[in-house]
Amino acid sequence: MRTYLINAAVLGAFLSFTACSDAPNNADKMEQKVDKAMDDLRAGKEEMSSELRDLREKLVVEHARAEERLKDPDLTAEERSEWEAYKADVQMQLDRVDGNLNDVGSATNEMWDDVKAGTRRTVDDIGDWFDRQAEKIDRKTDADKDMDGH
Question: What is the pLDDT of residues 43-60, one digit of tens each?
Answer without folding.
Answer: 888 999 999 999 999 999
